[in-house]
Amino acid sequence: MGINKESDIAANLQIGPTSQGMVRIYVEGDGIELPLDFDPEEAEEIAEELMAAAETARMMAKKGR
Q1: Model confidence over 37-63: pLDDT tens digits?
Q2: What is d(CA 14, CA 25) in angstroms, rounded to the nearest whole number?
Q3: In angstroms, rounded to a whole number, what is the distance separating the alpha carbons of residues 23 and 16?
Q4: Nearest-CA neighbor of 29 among 8, 43, 48?
């Protein structure tokens, strides 16, 4: 499955700090639990990538793509 392929899979996403000073992205869906831990610097890089992707998506939507 690629990034542009639609899916009917539903999942819950939780993001928060752990007691060990990491940032956890926790994905839970149909029979799967996936905890992903990142150090704070990695989490900031992910946040920057999300912001950049959101801005690109917003611009694409305005162009009617």
Answers
A1: 999 999 999 999 999 999 999 999 998
A2: 6
A3: 6
A4: 8
Q: What is the pTM for the complete model shown? A: 0.81
| Strand partners of residue 27 | 13, 34
Quick one: tokens of 38? 């990142």
Other Cβ atoms less than 10 A from the Cβ of 17: the count is 11
CA distances from 30 to 8, 33, 59 (A): 11, 9, 33
29 and 12 Cβ atoms separated by less than 8 Å: yes
CA distance readout (Å), 36 to 29, 49, 52, 64: 14, 16, 21, 34
